[in-house]
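Customer escalation, tier 2.

The customer says the design service returned an amino acid string that "doesn't look like it belongs to this structure." They asked us to rerun it and document both sides in this ticket. The original C-alpha cells are below, unchanged.
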C-alpha cells in the first residue's frame, strides 16, 4: 500500500490544516475566557451593531480575493479542495459538480434518455448537453474529437461520450484523485480517456488537436484565465469550437470577455443562462439537502452549503440579485 498516494496526501494535508485550526481555535478560546468581560462587550458590538456589516464586508473581501481573484492562492486552494473532496467522498454515485441547467417549467427537463444513475444528476448533465450542442446540431458531434478541460468526476464527459457519440473524448483535470476516480469509474478506452493536467499549461496534449473544447464551471478556479485561452487556441483545429460556461461577478465580465477574444477566437454566440441555472438549483435543492444530511458532518455541511448553491448560499443570492451571472459562450477558431 502506498501511504503517500495522492489520495492519502490530500487527506493528510487536510487533517494537518484541521489540527492547526483546532489549536488556533483553542488559543483564541483561552484568550476569550481569560478576558471574559472584554469578550462579552466585543461579542455584543460585533453581533448587534452596524460593526457587524464591516466584519462581513472584510470577510467577503478576503474570501473573494482568495477564491476568485488571486493567482497562486486561488489555484492552490481549489486544487486542494477538489482533490480532498474526492479522497474524502469517493462515492461512485457523485459524478458531476456543476450548478446545472433547467427549463423554466415545473420539471425543468430537456433530456429524455438518462439512465437511473444519470437521473440523479439530471440538471448537471443538462448543462453539459447545452454546452456540447451549442452551435452544433446533434449529428455534428459524430466524428468529432472532444476535449474537456476541468472534467471533474467525469459524469458530464461520460454523458457526451455515451449519448452524443463523438469520435473521442479526452478529459483533463488538475486533481489527480478525480482523474483516478474517472479511470476506475468509467474504465479507459480509445474513445474516452482522462488525464491529469493544468488548464494553464496543456503541453501534455500537444500532439493532439480537437474539434470541440468544452469548459464547464471550472474557469473561475484558474489563476491566469488568459493563459488557459491561449492553450485552448493552440489545441483547436481550424474551424473548431470552444464552448465555455461559468459564473462571474458582473464587474468581472468585461475582462473575462476580453480575455476570451484575446487570441483571435471569433465569438459566435453568447447566452445569459442565469435564470436556467437558478431554476436547476431550485429543482435540485431537496436532493442536495438530503445528500448533505446523509454524508456530511456538521463541519462539512456548512462548507458544502457554501459551494453547493443551495438557496441559503451566497452564490444563490448573488445569482438571484444578478450581481453574478452565469454565461455560456461559443467561440470559433477561424
Ligand atoms: C466545479 S468543478 C466542475 C467539474 C466538471 N466540469 C463538472 O461540471 O462536473 C471545477 C473543476 O475544475 C477543476 N480545475 C480547477 N483548476 C484547474 C486547473 N488549473 N486545470 C484543470 N482543472 C482545474 C477542478 O479540479 C474541478 O474538477
Amino acid at each position: 500500500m502506498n501511504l503517500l498516494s495522492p489520495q492519502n496526501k490530500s487527506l493528510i494535508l487536510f487533517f494537518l490544516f484541521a489540527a492547526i485550526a483546532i489549536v488556533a481555535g483553542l488559543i483564541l478560546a483561552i484568550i476569550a475566557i481569560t478576558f471574559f468581560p472584554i469578550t462579552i462587550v466585543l461579542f455584543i458590538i460585533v453581533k448587534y451593531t452596524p460593526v457587524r456589516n464591516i466584519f462581513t464586508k472584510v470577510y467577503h473581501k478576503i474570501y473573494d480575493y482568495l477564491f476568485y481573484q488571486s493567482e497562486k492562492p486561488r489555484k492552490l486552494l481549489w486544487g486542494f479542495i477538489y482533490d480532498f473532496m474526492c479522497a474524502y467522498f469517493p462515492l461512485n454515485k457523485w459524478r458531476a459538480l456543476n450548478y446545472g441547467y433547467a427549463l423554466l417549467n415545473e420539471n425543468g427537463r430537456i433530456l429524455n434518455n438518462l439512465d437511473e444513475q444519470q437521473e440523479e444528476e439530471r440538471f448537471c448533465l443538462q448543462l453539459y448537453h447545452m454546452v456540447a450542442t451549442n452551435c452544433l446540431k446533434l449529428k455534428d458531434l459524430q466524428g468529432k474529437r472532444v476535449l474537456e478541460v476541468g472534467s471533474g468526476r467525469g459524469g458530464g464527459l461520460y454523458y457526451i461520450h455515451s449519448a452524443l457519440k463523438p469520435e473521442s473524448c479526452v478529459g483533463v483535470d488538475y486533481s489527480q484523485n478525480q482523474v483516478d476516480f474517472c479511470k476506475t469509474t468509467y474504465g479507459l478506452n480509445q474513445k474516452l480517456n482522462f488525464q491529469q493536467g493544468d488548464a494553464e499549461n496543456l503541453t501534455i496534449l500537444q500532439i493532439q488537436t480537437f474539434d470541440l473544447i468544452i469548459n464547464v464551471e471550472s474557469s473561475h478556479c484558474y489563476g491566469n484565465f488568459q493563459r488557459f485561452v491561449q492553450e485552448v487556441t493552440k489545441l483547436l483545429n481550424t474551424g473548431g469550437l470552444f464552448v465555455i460556461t461559468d459564473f462571474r461577478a458582473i464587474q468581472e465580465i468585461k475582462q473575462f470577455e476580453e480575455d476570451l477574444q484575446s487570441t483571435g477566437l471569433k465569438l459566435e454566440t453568447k447566452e445569459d443562462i442565469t435564470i436556467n441555472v437558478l431554476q436547476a438549483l431550485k429543482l435540485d435543492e431537496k436532493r442536495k439537502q438530503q445528500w448533505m444530511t446523509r454524508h456530511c458532518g456538521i463541519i462539512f455541511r456548512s462548507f458544502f452549503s457554501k459551494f453547493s448553491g443551495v438557496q441559503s448560499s451566497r452564490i444563490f443570492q448573488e445569482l438571484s440579485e444578478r450581481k453574478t451571472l452565469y454565461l455560456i459562450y461559443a467561440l470559433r477558431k477561424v
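Tier 2 assessment: The sequence is consistent with the input. The two ends are 50 Å apart (CA to CA). The pocket of S-adenosylmethionine is lined by residues 75, 78, 82, 96-98, 149-152, 156, 173-175, 178, 198-200, 216-218, 221-222 (CB under 6 Å). Sent an explanation to the customer and offered a walkthrough call.
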